[in-house]
Amino acid sequence: MRYAMAIDTKKCVGCSDCVVACQTENNVPHGYCRDWVVEVMDGTYPNLELEIRSERCNHCDNSPCVRCCPTGASHYEAGGIVTVTANECIGCGACIESCPYDARYSHPDGYVDKCTFCLHRVEKGEKPACVSVCPTNCMYFGDLEDPDSDVSQALQNRKYKTLAPEAGTKPQIYYLI
Amino acid sequence: MPDKTTLKKAMDALDFMVVVDTMPMEITGYADVVLPECTYLERYDDLRVEPHRIPSIAVRMPAAKPKYDSMPSWWMAKKIADKMDLGHYFPWDDYSEVIDWQLKELGTSLEEMKTLGVKKFDRESGALYLREGDDFEFSTNTGKIELYATDLAEHGFDPMPIYTAHPEPPSGFYRLIYGRAPMHTFSRTANNPNLTDLMHENAVWINPKVAKLWSLKKDQYVWLKNQDGQVSTFPIKVRVTERIRWDSVYMVHGFGHSNKNLKTAFGHGVSDSELITNVMIDPIMGGTGMRGNFITFITEDPGKEAKL
Amino acid sequence: MKEEIFVSGRNIPNIDPFLHIWHWQIPLYLFLGGLAAGIMFFASLYTILGKEKEMPTTVKWAVFLVPAALVLGLFALFLDLKHQWYFWRLYLTVRFESPMSWGAWVLMLITPLSMMWVSSYIKELYPKWDWKFEILNKFEKLIIEYRKSLAWALLILSVILGIYTGILLSAFNARPLWNTAILGPLFLVSGLSTGAAAIMWMSKSHIERSFMSKVDLILIGIELFFIIHLFMGFMASTAVQINAAELFMGGQFTVSFWVFVVILGLVFPAILEILELRGYKIPVAIPALLILFGGLMFRFIMVEAGQITRYLY
Ligand code: SF4
Ligand code: SF4
Q1: B247 and B174 in contact (C-beta within 8 Å)?
Q2: For the packed helices C285-308 and C183-202, what is the interaxial angle rounded to 10 degrees?
């Protein structure tokens, strides 16, 4: 099993519903977020190209954050989901430094927090909160090893990319372009 | 709302003003009485009956209990009626009874709709699309699709649209275009903490060429003045972007609240409505056009002299 | 024009707009670790070489600084932790892939060993010292007997500690400025050089001083060579590393790095040391202090600047 997400940059309108859904689902403290939306615009008026990406932890296959954690608080769950066990984390910040995507933050309570792919929902067979609220249905979640899963299907017919693959982390969020 | 001054005059002329809303807004501050309404997720609403392509009915049902002292509007109406001795017009205890009765008339019931949500029906008004050879008459004078509108001609209007030049910005001014951000619903969510986390102020979009001309930098704050000399109450952040033409500026509607009770929203960004003093009205169908306003930039605090 | 913005208004403390999760604690910790490693290295080296008589400060007195520096360094690390009362979690597991983990373990080993070292010389410093308990006296005898073995252990540990201070950073491939293998040796040499400076400063024997000063000159030479090598490596590398190097070549760290670290912290003290060796009278405190100051600045700048550098996508 390998959980992954595919996000359609052509469908996303940048409404940030995914961000609020995550904040409420996961009790993310005010002023913090586990996912965020980036808009990249290139060109000169009127010839413009726009890419809107909902970003979050890439649940990398080769996660530097898991590697550098001195206590094992950062670890892989089934399906490659990367999570942090709060009461094992000492808050050293090494994992924050190690993530090329700035996907982690230091929770006001001291431990490090990040996207969990809504593990608690996924375990019950539900989709992550962000995926379930997206009004344009531009996010696909599922098991990459299952050819019938939403994510495998989405990747079959479209061109896609990952972010900063040269960082070598093998990110598992695929952006349809 | 555009043209705040006129609006305020109108409100001052009222004897009594009640605001019923789910969220506090600028106007709430002017009310004599505020009746907080619960949101659509916490109440029954009237049936939605759609006779469109596929006829359907839908019921909005509460998914959660109302929070705090908020109440559905039917409850408010009924209670006011009771006070006014008009209670006999509301011969029910809960609005769901009314909805249930209506649904039963339609051949279903609240019970069934609770499991369905939306119920679809077959079309009774004929086929959805015209078929070749069908004899069909449109509801116009000629019975045909009219490019030359005989109706308009009868009333003395141009039967064919004649190009009318729209007003152009005077030199040094830029057309004010406003729009919505997908994360906010009009101006009413500007005080919502989750949504202000996403966007807590608006920015004025300026083409790089214009920015260069005015030596404006990204994230700098400026005040805006419109063609009628109306100056924005607050300053606004500059966003230099190719996403706007060089003869226009853009900003998101719903910011620049000046009521201090809107604790989160107060004083962030500029209200486009404040700068819309020219509302044009289409002589034929009465539609309003508010993109005929022009603004220029002020880089020094215009209130400074007044404060000294 | 290219424009990249967070439409969702992300603005997380210490992460946006620039990563700044490590403040003064980590560079101080790295500096103290390097200093301790430097002193301990020379102490154990000259013990193994049998030079206790000629180099008393190196072998005995300067080492008194080591446990103090290590404890202070560990305390700085502790202050950096945001979930402090789970500190003990560090010592429930050994994770070889995590430099932070083996750094914590090396410190856990080297701190008590250096304390033992110091305790075995305490009677030479204060002849009236009494351990009070018979068992401690026995223990002291044991240490003195096995001093050479202890020296070997500490020699190895101090090299690991010195390199570790650099590897802690270079293991982060997400920060292009740190992600270079030269950082380990560079931090080791810089640590050794600060160690040598501290010994030089404390030493009262002219012979020992001029000897350490020669050693230090060599170390400064190597360090300068590594620094040049560091930037050559960056300039020949990917866009993100070129960007990283540009922070020091016209960017915001140019003055602080070249003036404080390279000129004041390396070149100037080197000139002073050469003059002193040529027979000019120069108070030893000046070059020693400059080197220590340069070493501290170097770590501060590397930690600050490194956090700003990132991958672009
Ligand atoms: S995106 Fe960052 S936090 Fe997430 S797994 Fe990869 S390195 Fe770790
Ligand atoms: S901050 Fe916590 S999760 Fe991150 S590396 Fe340190 S102990 Fe591990």
Answers
A1: yes
A2: 160
- The band of B1, judged by pLDDT with boundaries at 50, 70 and 90, is low
CB contact under 8 A, B197 and C9: yes
**pLDDT range class, residue B179, cuts 50, 70, 90:** very high
- The low-confidence residues of chain A, meaning pLDDT below 50, are none
ipTM of the prediction: 0.90
DSSP state letters, B119-145: EE----SS-SS--TT-----SSSSSS-
Q: Where along chain C do its domains lie? A: 25-308
A5 CB near ligand 2 (under 6 Å): no
Distance from CA of B209 to the nearest CA of C (A): 11
Domains of chain B listed by start with CATH number: 17-120 (3.30.2070.10), 174-298 (2.40.40.20)
| CB atoms near residue C268 (< 10 Å) | 16
| Alpha helix segments (H runs only) across chain C | 25-48, 56, 65-80, 99-125, 134-145, 147-170, 183-202, 206-235, 239-246, 254-255, 268-277, 285-308
d(CA A63, CA A101): 11
Atom of ligand 2 nearest to the CA of A93: 1
Q: Using beta carbons and an 8 Å cutoff, which residues of B are at the interface with C?
A: 183, 197-200, 208, 240-243
Give the count of beta carbons closer than 10 Å to the beta carbon of residue A175.
Answer: 23
Separation between Cα atoms, residue A138 and residue B215, nearest integer Å: 39
Which residues have C-beta within 8 Å of that of residue B119, sequence separation ≥ 6?
B56, B57, B58, B108, B112, B113
Nearest to B146 by CA among B161, B156, B135, B131: B161
- Neighboring chain B residues of A44 at a CB cutoff of 8 Å: 242
Check pocket membership of A67 for ligand 2, CB cut-off 6 A.
no
Minimal C-alpha gap between B93 and chain A (Å): 34
**What pLDDT shows up at residue B2?**
64
In this prediction the pTM is 0.86
Burial of B42 (0-12, 13-18, 19+ CB in 10 A): middle
CATH top-level class of A3-176: alpha beta
Kindly list the partner chains of chain B, i.e. chains with 3 or more CB atom pairs below 8 Å: A, C
Q: What is the mean pLDDT of residues B127-136?
A: 85
Taking contacts as CB-CB distances below 8 angstroms, the residues of chain B near C13 are none
CB contact under 8 A, C8 and A90: no
Indicate if ligand 2 lies below 6 Å from the C-beta of A66.
Answer: no
Q: 């210490």: which residue's tokens?
A: C14
Dump pLDDT digits (tens) for C61-115. Answer: 999 999 999 999 999 999 999 999 999 999 999 998 999 998 999 999 999 999 9
C-beta neighbour count of B2 within 10 angstroms: 18
pLDDT at B306: 57
Give the N- to C-terminal CA distance of chain A in Å, as an integer.
25
- Alpha carbons within 13 A on the beta-carbon side of A170: 11
- B304, two tokens: 């400074």
Tokens 């009222």 correspond to what residue? B14
Indicate the CATH number for domain C25-308.
1.20.1630.10
How many CB atoms sit inside 10 A of residue A86's CB?
A: 16
Alpha helices in B185-245 (DSSP H): 193-198, 208-214
Q: Which 240-299 residues of chain B touch chain A by CB within 8 A? A: 241-246
Tell me which residue in B183, B199, B242 faces C1 most closely, judged by beta carbons.
B242
